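Example record used in the benchmark description.
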Amino acid sequence: MGILSALRLVKNEPDSLTSQYNPAVMNSGYGLNSWNDYGMGYDPIGIDLGSAMQVPTVAKCRNLICGVIGGIPLELYNKTTGEELGSPIWLEQPDIRQPRSVTIAYTVQSLLFYQVAYWEVTATYKDDGRPARFAWVANERVSSKLNALNTEVDYYMVDNTQRPMNGIGSLVTFQSLQPGVLATGGRTIRAALDLERAAAISAQTPVPSGFIKNHGADLPEAQVQGILAGWKAARNSRGTAFLTSTLDYQTTSFSPAEMMYDSAKQSLSTEICRLMNVPAYMASSDANKSMTYQNILDARKEFFAYTLAPYVCAIEDRLSMNDITNSQNTVRFAVDETFLRVDATTRLATIEKMLNLGLITLDQAKAMEDLSPNGDAS
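Model output (structure tokens):
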């Protein structure tokens, strides 16, 4: 033990690792009960992820956010010098069973829909006890035991089995910077599902629903049921049916055009884009927006700044905490080198100016373009 640790001027590593596995409860104000506060009625079932993903706009927005972030590599840097360090194996592939991109994509999905994501520690380093491997855990499998004030987590359970708060089998939690979509957008998503259902029913029954009116003498109940059954069977099999002169079919429903399904779908699609903070044109919900080659990079910058950045920041900051990464280092997504990478002409012009100003060497310039010192692709 060093003298600073002995004097308690530096916290011992085991204490630091243990204390950071006890997060506060951040999402207590966004439960299903809050629906009733707006006079919309309380639905104890709510919207689950499987149902939400049946809405095309929700699926599109989810794929945009999770797919883009999942495809960006993670890198390790020294906080003091900014030097890029060699990545530990868990940063290249957190879960030994699947590619890094898959693990990150589903982590972002959990943050997007639930406000919290979970990684299970499956292996640790012997020298310092920090995690060496992880496994993403679906939110539906996780529950928690809170303290008496419901402000902190005493322990987690996975599949109703208690987990330790540190070491192998413990859970690392990622907290989102904003509420989960399933909690804040339940009514909007349910409205979209109801609209899809109504449109499907209308497509399945092209003949408007209605009633048969009798202009003659009253008929016995058995004969009425027989007429209705024959009418339904004839419509289902042949599309047409026969009525006598005393019977008349009168419609009581509107046609799909009169119901304005298309305009309602467009409106709800735009609302879902607002809910998930995705530009409507990216989800094909804004027909008036067009893109040109010149403003694609600007659109990417805007998409990253206003949509992706909160999730990127949440993951970067959590993986940079001292219980996972040495406090002298930090984890960052390689956003500039991948998603926001400019065209070759602009990059070369920038490198040329840096060379002329003496800010970088020729070897460093080649490295910026992934070239070896001999000029070959590295």
